[in-house]
Amino acid sequence: MYKNSIIKTFYNTKQVLKKDSKNNVSKSPLKPKLLLEFLEENNLFDYFEIVNDFEPFVKDDFYIAHYKSYVDAMFKGRKPLCESSSLKWSKQFLESLTYTNASLYNAIRESILEPQQVTFSNTSGFHHATPDRGNAFCSFSGQVIASIKIYDEFGLSGAYLDLDGHFGNSINDSYDYVPDLDKAIPYGCNINPIDNGLKYIADLKRRLKILASKIANDEVHYIVFAHGADSHLHDDLGGQLTTSQWIECSKIVYEWIKQTEKKTKKLIPLTLSLFGGYRKDNFESVLSLHTSDLVMCLNVLCGAEIEYMPNVKQRKYDFNWR
Ligand SMILES: [Zn+2]
Fold it and tell me: What was the pLDDT predicted at 25?
């Protein structure tokens, strides 16, 4: 049985950082908007329903995963802490964070209420933050906050399939600080495959097999999948997979969800997110990879039959040996 034919996308224009390209190195804060425009240009927008009427997070939400001193510095714009993610602070930047973090939480919540519905938080900038500070373009631990709130409300536990090019340390670095995080995201459920190419794919499959048994045993109740485009070998800041391998990983994940739902006779709530992807020479390649991931989800899980070939440009100067 297929899931609903459209993907519910939790997007409010306030989650986009304005004037990003001039002030900041990372294009992540602008990516939600750019991706939606890209989907529209490729006549794919009809497969997405935008939900924009969710409430932004407030200070108390961020206290769940962070030191009071750090959250207060972020809300007051106190340097250097407020720029510990390497992104320039502004009031509008702070406001965008209250929406990106709320987007992820609300998307997960909706997938739990309606497991037939794939949800999408077109966001990034969470998985390197730690309790005391931001780090590497990530300001707040959005995954930790979302999952604690979900656990408090529903008593449910989640797993994160983090196929970004970089290890998402935020969850593991928060276990000692955040009470009940081991219940909200059980140990071993922050899944970041290791190695490159075929070994990466083999590691992903191995981890999915273990995760399937956790789902069958009722230890994990929902999945968040973020296929960061910086795990593509031409990205500025990553590079584990060729284009076909990157797409194969999407296929493996969605087919695995389909099979696991069949075997366990359970509907598995699924939320998608974006995470990294940084090519300065050709950002369209990043958007194209994310699009191909969304199309794979629509085709495998939602019954669509979309033909979409990702257009990933060769790097001009590529020193990568693969
Ligand atoms: Zn990354």
Answer: 53
Query: What letter does residue 137 receive in the DSSP assignment?
Result: T
Q: How far is the CA of 274 from the centre of ligand 1 (A)?
A: 10
Residue 163 near residue 229 (C-beta atoms within 8 A): no
Q: Where are the alpha helices (DSSP H) in 42-193?
A: 59-63, 68-76, 91-113, 142-154, 181-184
What pLDDT is recorded for position 189? 98
Q: Which two tokens stand for residue 151?
A: 């656990």
| pLDDT recorded at residue 319 | 54
Phi, psi of 133 (to 5 degrees): -170, 170
Say what the pLDDT of residue 237 is. Answer: 84
Whole-number Å distance between alpha carbons of 122 and 11: 7
Cα(273) to ligand 1 centroid in Å equals: 13
pTM over 0.90: yes
Tell me how far the alpha carbon of residue 277 lies from the centroid of ligand 1, in angstroms: 7
Q: At 45, which helix (H) or strand (E)?
A: none
CA of 303 to the centre of ligand 1 (A): 30
DSSP, collapsed to helix, strand or coil, labels residue 87 as coil
What CATH number has the domain spanning 7-301?
Answer: 3.40.800.20
How far is Cα 248 from Cα 238, in angstroms, rounded to an integer? 18
Distance from residue 48's CA to the centre of ligand 1 (Å):
25
- The alpha carbon of 227 and the centre of ligand 1 are apart by a number of angstroms equal to 10
Residue-level pLDDT at 28: 63
Going from the C-alpha of 25 to that of each of 28, 74, 303, 322, the distances in angstroms are 9, 19, 38, 26
